[in-house]
Structure formats: C-alpha cells, structure tokens
C-alpha cells in the first residue's frame, strides 16, 4: 500500500510562503499560478512584510492566516526554511512543497539539515516534496503550484529537471498529448520517485507515467513500482555510461556498467527506456492510446516505392518484421488497387492515391483486418492534399491546380475521418509517417489518437514501443522483478573452495576437487578420484593468462610435474586439483552477479571462458533470475546459435544451464555481503551443465 498523497494533489487549502510581487523571485511565479483557480480552494499568500501581493492581501505568517492550511509551498531564503517548515506543521499542514535550495546538493552539512527536516515532517504525519524542487501541478484538481502551465492530458510527468519538463511539454503538444500531473522531484528527502509512481498508478486520469531521473534512490524499488503500475512507464535518464565499479575484481564487475544495470532493470520491469526528450515524446505518443500489437509482423503501406523501402528498413532496424503477405492477402489487395500496385509488403499504391485518396483508407483497413498482420505503418505522402488547402505547401498550392487540389483535399480529409474510425475500432495499432504531419488530414488522425510523425524512424520506434519484446512473443508481459530472497548466513570463506561449497549446497554441480598446498596433499588428491586431472593456482583472477591452469594431466606423474613447474614459477599459497571435465560438444558460458549500489544484485550471463571480456557477448537482468528468464537471456545472445548446435554438433542442454543460472543468482541475491560472484566457465554439454570455476568478492 502506497503513501497517502491526497493532501499533496488535492488539498483543502493552499498557502504560498515567500509569495512576492517581484517577478525575479520564484515565489512570484508560484503565487501567480496558484491564483489561477481561486474558487477551487482557499489560496493564501504569505510574505513576512505583509501588504499586498498580486493584488491580494498577504499574511505576515502562516499563523496570521487564522485557520489550518492543508498544503504549504515554501519559497524562502535557505536560513529561514526550517522555521517555515515548523510553522507549516504547527498550522496543521499535511503536505509541504520545498522550493528552497541549499541542502543535500551542497554536501554533507546540507544533507544532515535535509534529513533532520524530513524526520520532523514524517514525525508529524505530513509529506514533503523537495526541497530544491520547482513545484507541482495537478490539472485534474486545478492545483497549479509550479512556475509554468502544463496542458491537460493523461501523462504524469515526474522530473528532476524543470527545463526538460518544459521541453517535453513543447514536444508533446503537436501530438495532442497533455499532462495529468507534474512533479519536480527535487532532492526526494521525503516523497520519493517510488511514492509518486505508486500514487500515479492509482490515479484514474493518468494513462502513462513519464520520468526524467538521475538519482533513483532505491533503484530496485523503482523497478518494482514501475512493474506493478499497470500503466506505461517511460524513463529518460542521464549518466548511464560511467562504470559502476572502477576497480572490479571479476569479469562480471569489469563488464557491468551503469548503463547495463539501468537497461536490465527497465527490461525486467517493462519500462520503456529512451535516450532523448525527442524519443520520449515518440514513445509517449505511441503508448498513450493504450493500443498494443500482438506481435512484430508489420505491414507497410505507401504511395511511393522509396518511402516504402525506407520504412521497411526502419521497421526491421527497430526489431520488427515486414514479412511478405500470403497469396490470399495479396489477392484481396488486388481487388482494391490497380495493376501496377505492389501488394507483397510493402504495399505500394503506386500513385493510386493521386486518383483516389480513399485508396489509402481502404488499403489500411484491409491490412488491419489480416490475421497475418499485427500492425500497420502508413508512410509517405498522405496529408499532402489537405496540406494545400491548409496553406501548408501541398501539391495543389505549388502547381496552381486549385480546383483539382480542393477535390483531392476533400477526399483525403474524408478518408482520414474514415481511417480514424476504422483504426480506433481495430485491436491493432496504426502509426503514420507523413511528409505533412501538420496537415488537416493528419491532425484528424492525431485527434483520434493515431500517432503521426514526420520522421520514418520515429514511426518505426513508436511501433516497437507498441509491440511486445521478442522474449515475450505471446504478449505475456514483462519478465518482472523477482523479490529478493531472505538474507542467508554470511559467507565466511570467500576463497575458491569456500565459494564452491556455497554454490554446491545450492545444487550447482562441480567436478570433484581438493585444495592442496604441497606434494603430499596433491598425491592424496590424485588417489581420491581418477584422472585426467586439472591443476589450478588459486587466488589469481586471470589464471589462464598467468599460466596458472594446467589441463588434461593424464596421471599422477604428470600432475606432480605440472605442480612443481607451476609452483616454482608462481609460488601460489594453494592450488586446486580437480577431475578433468569432458569438454566434448560443450559450450563455455559465464554467469555472474554484481551488486549495484542502487539496484542491488544484477546478473550477467553470456559466452564464457578465457575470451569473455574480449567477446563481450553478455546479457543482464536483476537477480535472482528464474530459469525461464535465464533461457530467454541465453537465446538472445549474439552467439546463441552455438547453443542450438552448429556444423553437425548437437544442441546443448539449455534447461540445465538455465537451472544453474537460477541457483547461482539466487545464492548471490541472498548474500548482501557478496559484492561480486561468478561461475566462469559454466560448461554446458548436450547432457547437462557443470561449473568449472567460481569466484566471489566480499563487499
């Protein structure tokens, strides 16, 4: 159950402390916005000098108002912030918005002040947004407590940047998108991003949640909240390129970056991760209507071969498919189009739209009705005829054929209206790319909730956002975020054999092995199990590179000779004697877990062995990773064909590999003291999986 934020978004009364007539002060902008809805609730302006602000009498203090205030916005100089908070709590405030800066962002002293304030607010049973924020707004309750207006609509915008929020509003407007809420996150001293997502999930007027965040706080809780929201969550973030661990002591740590972690969390939680405000707008336009494709099969419709070819390439680049239509479908299209039209996919009207604009709508409707099509992308010239009459530079305006242009424009507008009705009644998504996205016919589509874009790649990205990921071909939803298991007793022996014992107890299979320090123990180990043998020098990260691994030693004498040579060269404190595994028809994998400070344990699986870092064919997910998800990660690798059998080799036991991945990642998730753990290589053969090496690093 989330926190009660009702006083934050629909308070009974509001006060702005620090309200000012000086346009250079933020208290002026917030006060002016607050007064936009004076009849919805009492709005009190507070200025310690009294007098009037924006033509209204200002109280000199909250106490001077003479009645309780539900929500208080505080925009005062830093030294006076604590006193203002205390005054607000004393007058019964249940919610506070802290505009004032100068807290955690300034260092340890500011952080301590901020924490003390948050503690007082929570102890009083109130909630605080900020400090160091730019306000909030809720169009559904006529609450305007930010410096700018946000057009009403269905998007809840939660942002750490005020300017980015304004840019998103400008970019969203041409797509007919508006905002149910806006919250500037600030320092998240009390109310967090997780709290706001949970509240937006239950907000009827919110249809999608847009987030710009650099500090996730508890990243795993963020992913869990987004996964449980039941509404699209689109994330724009920055700083994902820096390595999360500068001095990693395992392959897993060395290969895991902040970007990998955020991307893994988003995939698992079903969050749409975007790289720019432009891409965020594209995805929001796609997801806002709620329509989803059942699969990746896209039909491209165009009235020009060039646009069709470019759109097909962009669609496939976005991860979708443009399959050739079946003969029956092509025959159906032949009855609608003329002889020179292409009907294989892309479907090219080949100029028929110039004679009959209704051919666009008829063709799109026919494609949407095909069982073999999951979505439709209309690309190219549609919109050009009505653009002429709208003064947007369409063909009739350029050629001077006003009469013919008017007839074409009327036909295009009519087919746009029909297309809107047909597309909105269909279960499948339609996305449009037009050379004239602002034309009246295209605006008709936008008003009906059909996304229209000027760029082909944007239309393809939009369709990708409306299509389930390949790992969930039956639209089963995102993989999800599994809860962490209960903490297990701490690992007290992080050495090689201690880690083997920990994983063996979780039923991770290993070859027989003995740790030895001298020749007598080595010979005893050789008597304990049959050769051939493996000898490893322990406590080396890259054993093979250092010459610390000897394989296929056939007997005791070969084992003893290898030990003497290796020990003379490396002088390791201890060694491991192991039974040599059968490598026939095997593939070496890696499975590891790196504990991220924000998102907790993050698993990495991929092609393993000595070339792990060179090949970098790995995939990531939040740990623990269930076996079915592990299988998806493996089959999504670039080298997945190796697992399925190539050049006459049999396929390996993918289920056995996935089971080991589940066990290793579950162990890691249950041990918060382990910073990094990995099995490399994990040998997977047609008859099972066997862990050949393991390593752990304590936090």
UniProtKB/TrEMBL annotation:
Pfam family, one: Succ_CoA_lig
Protein name from the UniProt record: Acetate--CoA ligase family protein
Occurrences of domain CoA-binding (ranges): 8-103
UniProt-listed InterPro entries: Acyl-CoA_Synth/Transferase, ATP_grasp_subdomain_1, CoA-bd, Ligase_CoA_dom, NAD(P)-bd_dom_sf, Succ_CoA_lig_flav_dom, Succinyl-CoA_synth-like
Compositionally biased residues, Pro residues: 480-489
Source taxonomy: Bacteria, Bacillati, Actinomycetota, Actinomycetes, Kitasatosporales
GO molecular function term, any single one: ligase activity
Segments for region (Disordered): 466-489
Parts of the chain that traverse the membrane: none
Entry keywords, A to Z: ATP-binding, Ligase, Nucleotide-binding
Low complexity bias: start-end ranges: 466-479
């Amino acid at each position: 159950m989330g926190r009660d934020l009702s006083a934050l978004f629909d308070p009974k009364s509001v006060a702005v402390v620090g309200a000012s007539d000086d346009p250079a002060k933020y208290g002026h902008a917030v006060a002016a916005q607050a007064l936009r809805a004076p009849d919805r609730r009492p709005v009190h302006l507070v200025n310690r000098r009294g007098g009037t602000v924006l033509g209204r009498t200002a109280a000199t203090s909250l106490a001077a108002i003479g009645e309780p205030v539900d929500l208080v916005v505080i925009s005062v100089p830093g030294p006076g912030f604590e006193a203002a908070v205390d005054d607000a709590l004393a007058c019964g405030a249940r919610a506070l918005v802290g505009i004032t800066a100068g807290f955690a962002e300034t260092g340890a002293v500011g952080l301590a002040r901020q924490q003390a304030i948050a503690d007082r607010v929570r102890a009083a049973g109130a909630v605080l947004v900020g400090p160091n924020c730019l306000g909030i707004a809720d169009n559904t309750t006529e609450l305007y407590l930010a410096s700018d207006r946000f057009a009403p609509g269905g998007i809840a915008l939660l942002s750490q940047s005020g300017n980015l929020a304004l840019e998103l509003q400008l970019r969203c407007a041409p797509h007919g998108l508006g905002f149910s809420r806006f919250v500037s996150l600030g320092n998240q001293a009390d109310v967090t991003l997780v709290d706001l997502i949970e509240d937006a999930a239950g907000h009827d007027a919110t249809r999608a949640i847009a987030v710009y965040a650099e500090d996730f706080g508890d990243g795993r809780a963020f992913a869990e909240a987004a996964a449980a929201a039941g509404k699209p969550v689109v994330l724009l973030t920055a700083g994902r390129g820096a390595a999360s661990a500068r001095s990693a002591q395992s392959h897993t740590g060395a290969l895991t970056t902040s970007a990998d972690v955020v991307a893994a969390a988003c995939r698992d939680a079903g969050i749409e991760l975007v790289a720019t405000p432009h891409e965020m707008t594209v995805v929001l336009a796609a997801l806002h209507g709620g329509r989803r494709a059942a699969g990746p099969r896209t039909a491209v419709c165009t009235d020009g071969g060039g646009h069709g070819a470019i759109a097909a390439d962009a669609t496939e680049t976005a991860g979708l498919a443009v399959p050739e239509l079946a003969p029956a479908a092509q025959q159906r299209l032949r009855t609608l189009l003329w002889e020179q039209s292409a009907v294989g996919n892309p479907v090219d009207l080949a100029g028929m739209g110039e004679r009959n604009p209704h051919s666009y709508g008829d063709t799109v409707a026919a494609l949407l009705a095909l069982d073999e099509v999951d979505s439709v992308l209309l690309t190219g010239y549609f919109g050009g005829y009505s653009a002429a009459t709208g003064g947007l530079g369409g063909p009739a305006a350029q050629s001077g054929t006003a009469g013919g242009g008017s007839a074409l424009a009327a036909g295009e507008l009519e087919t746009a209206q029909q297309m809107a009705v047909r597309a909105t009644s269909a279960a499948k998504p339609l996305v449009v790319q037009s050379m004239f996205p602002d034309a009246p016919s295209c605006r008709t589509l936008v008003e009906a909730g059909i996304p229209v874009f000027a760029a082909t790649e944007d239309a393809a990205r939009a369709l990708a956002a409306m299509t389930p990921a390949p790992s969930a071909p039956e639209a089963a939803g995102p993989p999800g975020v599994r809860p962490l298991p209960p903490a297990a007793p701490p690992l007290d022996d992080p050495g090689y054999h201690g880690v083997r014992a920990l994983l063996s107890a979780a039923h991770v299979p290993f070859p027989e092995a003995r740790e030895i320090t001298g020749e007598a123990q080595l010979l005893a180990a050789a008597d304990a199990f049959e050769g051939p043998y493996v000898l490893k020098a322990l406590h080396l990260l890259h054993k093979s590179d250092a010459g610390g691994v000897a394989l296929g030693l056939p007997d005791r004498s070969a084992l003893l000779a290898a030990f003497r040579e290796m020990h003379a060269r490396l002088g390791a404190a201890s060694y491991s004697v192991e039974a040599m595994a059968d490598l026939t028809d095997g593939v070496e994998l890696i499975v590891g877990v790196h504990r991220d400070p924000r998102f907790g344990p993050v698993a990495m699986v991929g092609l393993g062995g000595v070339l792990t870092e060179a090949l970098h064919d790995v995939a990531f997910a939040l740990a623990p990773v269930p076996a079915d998800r592990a299988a998806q990660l493996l089959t999504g690798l670039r080298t997945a064909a190796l697992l399925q059998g190539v050049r006459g080799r049999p396929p390996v036991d993918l289920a056995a590999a996935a089971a080991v991945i589940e066990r290793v990642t579950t162990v890691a998730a249950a041990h918060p003291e382990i910073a990094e753990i990995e099995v490399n290589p994990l040998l997977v053969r047609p008859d099972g999986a066997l862990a050949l090496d393991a390593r752990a690093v304590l936090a």
